[in-house]
Amino acid sequence: MDESVSAHGAEPPTSEIFESLQTLLANDSLRLSERNRRFLSFVVTQTIEGRSERIKAYSIGVDVFGRDDSFDPTVDPIVRIEATRLRSALTAYYEGAGAGDRIRIAMPRGGYVPSFAWAPDVADSVVAAKAATADEVNAAPAATVVIHDHSGHADPEAELRGELFTDALLVLLRKARFKTLVVPPAERAAASGSIQALFEKPGESYLLDIAVRPLAERRRYSWRFSDLRNGEVLASDFRDYFARAVAGFELIDELAQDAARSITAVLAVR
Fold first, then answer.
1. What residue ranges do the domains of the chain occupy?
2. Cα separations in angstroms, 267 against 84, 120, 260
3. CA separation (Å) from 24 to 20, 40, 52, 259?
4. Which of 2-6, 124-128, 146-150, 218-222 bottoms out in mean pLDDT, i.e. has the lowest?
5. Alpha helices, DSSP H, located in the chain
6. CATH of the domain spanning 141-268
7. What pLDDT, on the 0 to 100 scale, is given for residue 195?
8. pLDDT band at 213, cuts 50/70/90?
9. Distant-in-sequence, close-in-space partners of 86: CB < 8 Å, separation ≥ 6
10. Domain of life of the organism in this record (predicted)?
11. Cα–chain-centroid distance for residue 121?
12. What is the β-pairing status of strands 115-118 and 233-242?
């Protein structure tokens, strides 16, 4: 999705917020422990994915800080303490090394749901740029890419990795100016019907099939890009990665970047 999540003024799209988060987490100038980097990633990701109601002291204590189900935030103050450190670190970063960043990520006091805003000197130029390019964008609609995740839903780990792969592809394809759709679960009948109609009368539309499948101690990540109008496979690839305790964000992002570059290159010569 690419909706805005800021409440006022020129609002950063979620794709740019996500990119800003990744840059921020990789910056050594942000004085945070790895645990608090996970804290920041958790609250930002939950918010831009529309699940800010999950951002509570209890869920942070359990999901981020590894407390067990008996965790009581009124007794154990770890979330409040670490939130204070996180706020201070973000303020120091944007006053120093991050002064030139386009987007500001903050955690207002009194809660843990983050806020997002353009840097003051960027907001006006963003509004002007959007106005200047609106006619061009409307006059030349991009091709549509439908992402269909075939990862085994019986395997929760493969399902999670498939979702991460899809999220990474969405950000990159939208940046490349494609209109993107994701095949929804069967229970979302209205959305499923809309995509089925697209399959029947595709126009300039393409299907990106992806999958993450377990292979003993490895996981196979694969993708196949085809023309919906005639079924022609235009590009495909796969990678086998050894399973690890963590989801392997860097490997997933790298594969998504390679897939997006291949898709853009293939369509540029058609």
1. 14-121, 141-268
2. 48, 37, 11
3. 6, 10, 20, 24
4. 2-6
5. 14-25, 34-48, 57-63, 78-95, 120-139, 156-175, 189-200, 249-268
6. 3.40.50
7. 67
8. confident
9. 32, 36, 39, 40, 107
10. Bacteria
11. 26
12. unpaired
The answer to whether 166 touches 147, Cβ cutoff 8 Å, is yes
Q: Count other C-beta atoms under 10 Å from residue 242's C-beta.
A: 10
Summarised one tens digit per residue, pLDDT across range 165-202 is: 998 899 899 888 888 888 876 655 555 666 676 667 66
Question: Among all chains, which residue has been given the structure tokens 């100016």?
Answer: 177
Q: How confident is the model at residue 222 (pLDDT cuts 50, 70, 90)?
A: very high
C-alpha distances in angstroms, 41 versus 10, 35, 46, 80, 105? 23, 10, 8, 17, 11
Provide the whole-model pTM. 0.47
Label each residue of 80-129 as H, E or C. Answer: HHHHHHHHHHHHHHHHCCCCCCCEEEECCCCCCCCEEEECHHHHHHHHHH
Confidence (pLDDT) at 233? 94
